[in-house]
Amino acid sequence: MKKGAILIVFLASLILASGLVFAQSTNPWTADISGKEKRSFNADESIYLASYTVCFPPADNNISVYIVPTKLLGSGDKLEDVRGNASIIKTDKSGFIKTTKIWENTTGGNYLVVLDCNNNGEYDNEPTNYFNETGFSILEIGGAEVLAVEDDIKDEIFSYDSELGIKEVLMMKAAIKVANKEDIILNNIKLTASGSGEDFADVEKAMIYIDENSDGINNAGDLKLGEAGFDKDNGVASMSLNYTLVKGETKNIIITYVFKNFAKDKTYGFNISSMTGKGKDSANLIDFSGLPLASAVKTIGQEKLCKGDIKFSLTPISTFTNMPIVASVLGLQNCSGKKVDIKLNNCDEKESCSCTIQDSLCLCNFASPSTEGKYSVFACIDKNDDGKYTSGEMKSVEIEVKKLEGTIPTVNNANTTNTTNTQPVASKITRQAILKWARAHVITVMAIAMGIMFIILIIILIILIKLMMGKK
């Protein structure tokens, strides 16, 4: 009897142990399409499930398959599927789950597969693909969007300035906005040219920069990513790159053309036709949305002919308030007919006077400021007619204005074009102003004149006395 009891206990233990081993060996597993176990997926891959016998009764059983975020499950926990609803899978006659797709269009994260054998929507210590740890993981693929910058470079006429010698022209400002998934290694950018100009013959190369300080122009602080020439007219410039775009960040880029030839009236532009890159973690190809993206269109204008260093002078440079000042501009070549504006403080201010260049010279006059102080007066000439003043198109002279006691006649601003009159304009205006002031101060003038005459008489008397003494 004692031996029989021992035998029963042994058999029960063996069955229990076998059941535990059997249960362990029949947990479901995530897989690829072939049924091979796989626990790490990319976001563009579908998830498959397979298993041996897992639920009882095993044959032809409908099982609710849940995918839940990885967590420690307790008996009676409600199961909530990340897909919205559980899948219903029917086991075969052997109780196996044949390789079955359970999820596509996935979302990145760590998950468990739970088989709800009794279909009650709760966890009742039922099979999972990995208990108390991540069953499988989905690595999200990063992405990026290419955006036009609001103040992108506009279509305009560009005229080459041989004085400056600058052949690099801004063509586009854009931004690359990286998704908050993973870093992206940017490998290549392709530009497809357009316009009436000969891109292969006229454009030496296109260049791309990271605009580190976001000032919209390429300068010493910016990082050059790459450069390439076009393979033909209206062809492609392909730039090989190796730059890491950080997840969640936006990088501003600048693209320029370096011209070889400036063909008047020809137009130039391009599209960013493609960008390629790989996820730093996933190594998957990245989709750059927002492409193609068009650049500005540049039309080549007449090369700047008006040249020369501006020689700018003011007469006088030290004066009193509201007194006449004559501005003189010369030293320019091929500039006849161009307007010169004289302005206080900078070339963006309202003009004080203006003149038109004739035979490399122009003159105009204006009244000195009504408040004493030191002022910078600018001569401003738009040599290349691009509507703005740049280096070589402005020159300044400093004047000092003092306050004079008494009433001084004011001078209205008057524009004076260049003339061949041999009498200087400055002398003419100054003499008239002095005469007006003298008439208004007759007594003062007479006193000064009498004082001067008295001094002259004393000097003559001294000379005569010395002469007489010398004869003796």
What count of helical segments does DSSP give? 4
Quantity of strands, as a count: 28
Write down the CATH topology of the largest domain: Immunoglobulin-like
Order of strands in the sheet with most strands: 14-13-16-11-9-18
**Overall number of domains:** 3
| Residue share in β-strands | 35-45%
Class by helix and strand content? alpha+beta
| CATH class call of the largest domain | Mainly Beta
- The coarse silhouette is elongated
| Rounded radius of gyration (Å) | 44 Å
Can you summarize this structure?
The protein has 472 residues and is of the alpha+beta class. The chain is built from 4 helices and 28 strands.
Blueprint of the fold:
Elements: H1 2-25, E1 29-31, E2 40-42, E3 47-51, E4 62-69, E5 87-90, E6 97-103, E7 109-116, E8 136-139, E9 143-148, E10 156-158, E11 168-178, E12 184-194, H2 199-202, E13 203-210, E14 223-228, E15 236-245, E16 250-259, E17 267-279, E18 287-289, E19 293-294, E20 298-300, E21 311-315, E22 318-320, E23 324-330, E24 339-344, E25 351-356, E26 361-367, E27 373-380, E28 394-402, H3 425-440, H4 442-471
Parallel strand pairs: 2-8, 9-18, 10-20, 22-28
Antiparallel strand pairs: 1-3, 3-6, 4-5, 4-7, 7-8, 9-11, 11-16, 12-15, 12-17, 13-14, 13-16, 17-19, 17-20, 21-23, 23-26, 24-25, 24-27, 27-28
